[in-house]
Amino acid sequence: MIKMDAVLVGFGTVGQGVAEAIQMKDQLFVDRFGEGIRIVAAFDSNTYAASKKGLNPTELVRTKVGKGNIGKKRPETIPEMLSRLDYDVLVEMTPTNIVDAKPGIDHIKAALNAGRDVVTSNKGPLALKFREISKLAAKNKCNLRFEASVGGATPVINLASELLRCERISSIRGIMNGTCNYILSRMESEGLPWEPALREAQQLGYAETDPSYDIDGIDTACKVAILANAIMGNDVTVHDVERTGIRGVNLEAVTLAAQDKKVIRLIGEITEKGVEVAPRLIPRGHPLSISGTLNTFHIQTDLAGEIIVAGRGAGRHETASAVMSDLWVIMRTKEPNSHSS
Amino acid sequence: MIKMDAVLVGFGTVGQGVAEAIQMKDQLFVDRFGEGIRIVAAFDSNTYAASKKGLNPTELVRTKVGKGNIGKKRPETIPEMLSRLDYDVLVEMTPTNIVDAKPGIDHIKAALNAGRDVVTSNKGPLALKFREISKLAAKNKCNLRFEASVGGATPVINLASELLRCERISSIRGIMNGTCNYILSRMESEGLPWEPALREAQQLGYAETDPSYDIDGIDTACKVAILANAIMGNDVTVHDVERTGIRGVNLEAVTLAAQDKKVIRLIGEITEKGVEVAPRLIPRGHPLSISGTLNTFHIQTDLAGEIIVAGRGAGRHETASAVMSDLWVIMRTKEPNSHSS
């Protein structure tokens, strides 16, 4: 029987989605490991709730949605509480901050220093301080997993690091931002200029009100940095990524490309030449010509040649899916005689 | 130190590719497991070679290419020898036979009955006798792995069974035959009628001289049956798959689809409605609209929503890639304290 007591930090869309998924998939974990995941504490930005016997995930979400917060005021800071509480895994889901990675970085370090495993969807700490936290995890013999930080539900990190163990990966290229891809797809399919396509993406809730994070390629650059570090063994931060967004892509360029049976896509790439984000011409029918909001990753290897994996890059249950898959792997590694599945 | 003594049966393109890959990746296995994979015997259709100390993979391929056979006449049948020899894993790579699954089925059963693990690229036994051999493997506590049997290098089976463990999979749809997809892509991009597109595929070595296996959807139906059994827990054979090939798809249909921004693709599908192969209209930009010879699988799930994986469906090193990944997993499961990667 494998026990897994989790602390959830960050209780916005992703946090609530993970709570719901833990509830939804309880039986699956019980069937396999003898016990489900227990949420022993949860934190939103101002309050927290805790119970050694486990909090009811449905109740937690209901309280958050109804009252706007999750429980009572914290007696200490979150890192202090993460050092003191009794749990097995921190699930860190606060918003990405690419200036100083806070508060996520402090949560992750507190948990690793306390010898706890960490699963995170937060790009900031991974795009800015990858070496530091991965070394800390190794030093304390903790798992540090972050499938949800790149490509939402798309299992690109676990695919590359678990299923392609016999491959030498020479490059990764991908559509890593659904908002940009939606805008470019609409320009091409509807002949929309840039501005109305962006407004449409905003109205549908794909783009932020300040869209710079998406369309200037910052989000893609974070993901490029994470993949470069995690899969290719590089040591880079988001600031090392050469970056051109899609502001310069006008309808004329999209139309001209279409005449040549090509599409324009914002591509993040990790190659021998370096790490870069830029709009690229892609032949129609190529795996990286996919329309809409999916994230798509094209991995070049020596034996397989090329492997493509795609999925939904955002969304409550989509991101939760990636978090759950990391939690599953951690429980599996704790089995005394763990097998492959 | 994990030892892995392999017997290779079938020494055509795939068998030779696997021998080369075992050589290429030797250091990777030594670094991780303390020992590489040793080929203790290899069989082509008429001859065999064996050595308790391990055969040199490069020499084996050189002998086969130079002399047309691998060694000396067999004293017994292959199943008899597989029952008698000392080894850990059978790698079964004889050609697919969808009439009676022979000779592959006899090799696989002999190895499983002797308590050996099995890795195979051979669709016949899996598309005709899946339950029988998977039960036999379970009874003898043996691994039976077959990533290479569907989609060549594409890790669709291992992705679904290992990385999507928390997902409820409701359907799988895919482009599972590169030859058909090549023909349909060329009809659309070059305005080629059916016949010259097929001849082109044959000249490039994609299609068989008797192309029926590809274009009548038989190959796709085999893969549909395997995925239905292995991932969806069905109990079907290739004969249960409703099947329409691409012979009826003319240039007019392809052109008409293009006017509506759609493409025609031969899609294999496993849904709640059943198992089927048929040409389908796919919107341009959809993951299943990909051109060329790649195999693409679209998996519908409850949390992730949709996951797509694609890769090269055939080829010497591509198929070897899938075999190697299965061999890696088997070695990993033998580690006393095996971890996730």
Secondary-structure blueprint:
Two copies of one chain form a homodimer.
Chain A: E1 4-9, H1 13-24, H2 26-33, E2 37-43, E3 47-55, H3 57-67, E4 72-73, H4 78-84, E5 89-92, H5 104-113, E6 117-120, H6 123-128, H7 130-139, E7 144-145, H8 156-163, E8 169-175, H9 178-190, H10 194-203, H11 212-215, H12 218-230, E9 242-243, H13 251-259, E10 262-271, E11 274-283, E12 294-301, E13 306-312, H14 316-334
Parallel strand pairs in A: 1-2, 1-5, 5-6, 6-7, 9-11
Antiparallel strand pairs in A: 2-3, 3-4, 8-10, 8-12, 10-11, 12-13
Helix pairs in contact in A: 1-3, 1-14, 4-5, 9-10
Which descriptors would you attach to this protein?
homodimer; 341 residues; alpha/beta; Rossmann fold; Dihydrodipicolinate Reductase, domain 2; seven-stranded mixed sheet; six-stranded mixed sheet
